[in-house]
Amino acid sequence: MGAEAPCTLHLDGKKAAGKALLETEELVFRSPSLRLVVKLASIGTLRAEDGVLHVGWDAREAAFELGPAAAKWLEKIKNPKSRAEKLGIKAGQRVALVGGADEALGKEIAARGATVGALRAETDIIFYFAESRAALDKLAALAKKLKKDGAIWVIRPKGVESITEKDVLSAGRASGLVDVKVAAFSPTHTAEKLVIPVSRR
After folding, report:
1. How many domains does the chain have?
2. Cβ(88)–Cβ(125) under 8 Å?
3. Which residues, including other chains, have CB under 8 Å from residue 11's CB and lie 6 or more apart?
4. Same domain, yes or no, for 106 and 183?
5. 7 - beta bridge partners?
6. Do 115 and 160 reside in the same domain of the chain?
7. What is the residue range of 13's domain?
8. What's the pLDDT tens digit per position in 68-125?
9. Within the chain, which residues score under 50 in pLDDT?
10. DSSP per position, the chain
11. Which long-range CB contacts under 8 A does 137-144 form with residues at least 24 apart?
């Protein structure tokens, strides 16, 4: 979700001022004196009142003083975006999966009203499954099949030396692309979004 806000946290009789972050799977609070991570899946009770987000999980409760952000975060936690929404899939788009297959992703794309098919010219979004640095040599060729305002999502395994975020970003730039976003793709894979620079569209 990627939201953050200044916050005062009340937890276990303690009070601390710091920063709250709403991530894809966690609600995080950080301050010099207190740190807290709450898995969104573990939240049992949730409400927002007078700018305060009240969160209950595992027999514990915390109050996040977030001001106007409290109601917005409540809605984001209760109604999270689907993976396809986070990846920017829209109705009418042409999408190609290259270098791998993901049946669940294909269904999610179709549910958004987009079409999954073979790679061809003027593709809106390309999902490129890359397991090694060597696979990134194909980025330049893939970019030629992309719509000028389209995107390539490079899907790579997390936490491996064979292909890193730095590798993807360097290869993208060498192929004339710029990186604009990182997203969680699955428990084992992450995704970097590459696009054609606005000046070349």
Report:
1. 2
2. yes
3. 34, 36, 60, 62, 63
4. yes
5. 18
6. yes
7. 3-78
8. 999 999 999 998 888 888 899 999 999 999 998 888 999 999 999 999 999 999 999 9
9. none
10. --EEEEEEEEETTEEEEEEEEE-SSEEEEE-SS-EEEEEGGGEEEEEEETTEEEEEETTEEEEEE-TTHHHHHHHHHHSPPPHHHHTT--TT-EEEEESS--HHHHHHHHHTT-EE----TTEEEEEEE--SGGGGGGHHHHHTTEEEEEEEEEEEETT-SSS-HHHHHHHHHHTT-EEEEEEE-SSSEEEEEEE--GGG-
11. 137/171, 138/99, 139/171, 139/172, 139/174, 139/175, 139/177, 139/194, 140/174, 140/175, 140/176, 142/98, 143/175, 143/176, 143/177, 143/194, 143/196
For residues 77 and 27, the answer to whether their CB atoms sit within 8 Å is: yes
pLDDT at 200: 85
CATH of the domain at 121: 3.40.50.150
For the chain, what is the mean pLDDT? 93
Beta carbons of 54 and 48 less than 8 angstroms apart:
yes
Question: Which pTM was predicted?
Answer: 0.71
**Could you give the strand order of the β-sheet that contains 35-39, starting from the edge strand earlier in sequence?**
35-39, 26-30, 14-22, 3-11, 60-65, 52-57, 43-49
Same domain, 74 and 104: no
Stated length of the chain: 201
Residue where one domain finishes, among candidates 37, 60, 78? 78
Maximal C-alpha separation, the chain: 60
